[in-house]
Structure formats: structure tokens, C-alpha cells
Amino acid sequence: MAAAAAAASGPAGSRSGDASAHDPEAVAARVIMEATASAHRPIRTLRCFLAVLGDQATGKSSWLSFLQESKFSAGYRMTSSPGLQVLTVVAEEEDAATAKERAAAGEALTRVEFHCLDTQGNEAFFPLNTGDVVWERADAVCLFYDVSVRDTFTSLSKWRRRLSEQAPAANDGFVLCNKMDLDDDMHAVDEEEARAFAEAQGLDFHACSVKDGTGVKEPLQALAARIARRFNETVEAAKAAASK
Ligand SMILES: Nc1nc2c(ncn2[C@@H]2O[C@H](COP(=O)(O)OP(=O)(O)OP(=O)(O)O)[C@@H](O)[C@H]2O)c(=O)[nH]1
Ligand SMILES: [Mg+2]
């Protein structure tokens, strides 16, 4: 049965610049270890605070609702203050053979608990109070834009800067281009340009349509896999260092 062996004391998984990242005890302290209810494999849960940022009406809240409820609601209700939504994603392993090997060795399956901060795109609600705990805890960022409104893309540097000022550790994440269901002649941002921007920011690039459900889950799946991989590498490096 499930038994929490260590409560998480803070965000985990995506903080690559953290000096404690190579200290196995510090890493373990940030992880909720569970002797799992699953009959097959123990499950390790990592936690990541993800700030979802972007201009007004780009689809941030719709995306998070879709991930939670698997449905799209066409109405627009403006977000006026940040709200947290928790989504758990199992980190897929590199390939089926590796997964099988790890399962046979009794190694834990990793899942990432994303604490997603749905923010307000409307400038009327800025600046935030400094010391906003939720922003400061961000480990990763999702920069959202609407493919049919160029200004929402050009704003992304501003959103990144705004987050970096409050959460310098939020150096992982992705750019998410939304509303890909709209006709090509409405597309105001070239994908290559957006990919180059994401790369320059050290972020992944994904495109989706929350409206038709295309590409909606992939960004978090990819981020979860990266966080899990980094965690495993950190643990392996610590083990290797300890055995020297
Ligand atoms: N065509 C289309 N419309 C979408 C898509 N995703 C969201 N919308 C619509 O875009 C509008 C804004 O969506 P929201 O999710 O509220 O936008 P937001 O980014 O949370 O906006 P703020 O809370 O003001 O920052 C709504 O009318 C949605 O129905 C999509 O993939 N395609
Ligand atoms: Mg919103």
C-alpha cells in the first residue's frame, strides 16, 4: 500500500542549476517516495511548478481545462488572478525495452506532478506584488501564443523576462503555439521563427489546437520525460561519485 516515505519540501526535477541537485539526499528530500499501490512497479513522484504565461485570450486557461477535463469550452472567461491546477503525467521511458528492463530490476516508474500556475494575460492586472510565492517557486515555464495574432508571439520575450526576474530557476519549459485549427491564411507567425525563438531561450517548441485536441498533451509529456531523465542522471552520477 502507498506510504509516503518523505514529504516533498519544494519543487523538484527541473532545477538544473541547483547546487543541491547532485546531493542524493537533497534530491530525495524533494521527492515523494511511494511504495506504490501498483502491483508491478514502485512509483516515484517528482514535483514541478510550471508557470503558464502569455497574452490575453491565447488559450492558457482552455489548455489547462482541456488537460484536466478532456474537453474544450468555447466561451472566454478572463483570468484575473493566478490559479493553480495540478496535473500528473507519467514520464514515458526511452523505449519499451528499457521500460521492461527497469521494471524487471524493480526500478521505480517516474511521474511528474505539475503544479500549473494559470496566469492572467491582461496587463491591467500587472505588476504583481513582489514576493508572490507562487511565481517565485516556478521551475519551468510555458510561453503561450496565438498563431493568428502576431503580437502575442512578440510578447513572449516580455513574459519570459517578467518570470525570470521573479523565478530565476525557471529555466526549462516550452513555447506553445495555440489555435492551429485556424486556417493557414490566418497564421501570422512562421513556425521556423517560433522554433528559433524557443531554441534561443533554451526551451522546447510545440504547436497545438486546444479546440480540436491536437498536440495538447505532448508538451507536458515531453517535459515530464526530460525531468525524469535528468533526475535519473543525477541519481546515477551521485551513485558513481559515492562509489569512487
Ligand atoms: N479557435 C480556437 N480558439 C481557442 C483555442 N483555444 C482557446 N480558444 C479560445 O480563445 C479564447 C481565450 O481562451 P482562454 O483560455 O480563456 O485564454 P487565456 O489565455 O486564458 O486568457 P486570459 O485569461 O485573459 O489570459 C476563448 O474564447 C477560447 O475558447 C483553440 O485552440 N482554437
Ligand atoms: Mg485565462
Automatic annotation (TrEMBL):
Stretch list, region Disordered: 1-21
GO MF annotation list: GTP binding; GTPase activity
N-terminal signal peptide: none
Bias (Low complexity) ranges: 1-19
InterPro entries named among the record's database cross-references: P-loop_NTPase, Small_GTPase
Keywords recorded for this protein, A-Z: Nucleotide-binding
Protein name: Uncharacterized protein
Annotated organism of origin: Cafeteria roenbergensis
